[in-house]
Design brief:
single chain; 4-stranded parallel β-sheet; 346 residues
């Protein structure tokens, strides 16, 4: 939701949403250029072979926004399935010219991964960085932080199934309890089942895992009751941002859960858990802390470490200007129009 919303904010062209399953004739009737909002799809976890088939059948120019590689570490190169390699080659062939770049990636790590397989890309960051139209958003965030004590903290909840970061969830629960917070869920489905008390669809494996992750905080019934009181789920970016604006700071291992808070004008800190979240933070200058470092802190210490400094705000605005410039140039080179809002950020 965040990066699709961001993509709409940076494009001036009339936008028509089309589906991958639409017939090529209908797609060609409705539009003359395909812009694909991508995610962390470069890795062995995603085979985009069916997308390659559709790109060939649609027969239209294609521009990719926000593509990212995913690995446990930025020192590693992920395995790329054959279908994804074919998809990238298909997209490359649709570019304006042989030397044109029509793939915007989240950062230099993904750029390097693609370069190793002969695919050129532009490290323009994530479109969600440009949802807010204030060119001095970092300064606005710092000003707001200075006016308010940190009394309420929104938490971008993680993933109990992620082995390397599941231990964070107990600390995040403590932060919600100590700072009149909210535990905002994004994924996986099992967290939503717990939030809505859907006992009948929870497997015993899920129940056992959640009890183990939150060990020492509450039993199963206590967990269901806590989730009911303190967790939230959003299905559109606008209301998500409005909700976050009620808090003094947002933190957690979900990059976009934190990034939307910044776009709503509140400070935030991402707890990075892999190459994807680290690259996004480095490419957008969003304050971050590694999961290994965060696990060594108390709840209060983590909240204090998440505060923004003047350097954080200035660097954020500087990088945001750079990325807006890069996106505007990238869009123009692919025959697309940057929005007025994006142009004002340059």
């Amino acid at each position: 939701m965040a990066f699709v919303f961001g993509a709409r904010k940076i494009l001036k062209n009339p936008i028509v949403r089309v589906g991958w399953g639409w017939t090529p004739e209908v797609v060609r009737q409705r539009c003359d250029h395909l812009v694909v909002c991508c995610a962390n799809q470069i890795g062995k976890h995603a085979d985009l072979g069916t997308w390659a088939d559709r790109v060939e059948q649609f027969g239209l120019p294609v521009t990719l926004l926000g593509l990212g590689a995913q690995s446990d570490s930025m020192a590693l190169t992920p395995e790329i399935p054959a279908g994804t390699l074919r998809f990238l080659e298909c997209c490359k062939r649709t570019a304006e010219s042989q030397d044109a770049i029509n793939i915007a990636v989240r950062g230099k790590y993904t750029q390097r991964v693609l370069a190793e397989i002969g695919i050129a890309s532009e490290p323009a960051g994530c479109p969600s960085l440009h949802i807010n139209g204030n060119p001095e958003l970092g300064a606005e965030i710092l000003c707001r932080q200075g006016k308010n004590a940190i009394e309420r903290v929104a938490v971008a909840a993680g993933n109990p199934w992620h082995a390397g970061s599941a231990g964070l969830e107990r600390m995040l629960v403590e932060i919600v309890n100590q700072y009149s917070g909210d535990y905002i869920l994004q994924h996986p489905e099992s967290m939503l089942q717990v939030a809505y008390g859907e006992r009948d669809v929870m497997s015993q494996k899920t129940i056992n895992r959640f009890i183990d992750v939150y060990k020492g905080l509450f039993d199963f019934e206590g967990m269901l009751d806590w989730y009911r009181k303190y967790s939230s789920v959003f299905v559109d970016a606008t209301n998500w941002m409005r909700f976050l604006s009620k808090f003094d700071i947002v933190l957690g291992p979900r990059y976009h859960g934190v990034a939307l808070g910044l776009q709503a004008g509140i400070p935030g800190c991402v707890i990075t858990i892999d190459s994807r979240t680290q690259e996004l933070c480095e490419g957008t200058a969003i304050k971050c802390l590694s999961a290994s470092d965060a696990l060594g802190l108390t709840a209060v210490e983590l909240v204090e470490m998440s505060r923004w400094t003047e350097h954080d705000a200035q660097f954020f605005d500087h990088i945001r200007h750079q990325k807006a410039t890069a996106y505007a140039s990238f869009l123009k080179s692919n025959g697309l129009q940057p929005s007025d809002q994006l142009t004002r950020l340059i």
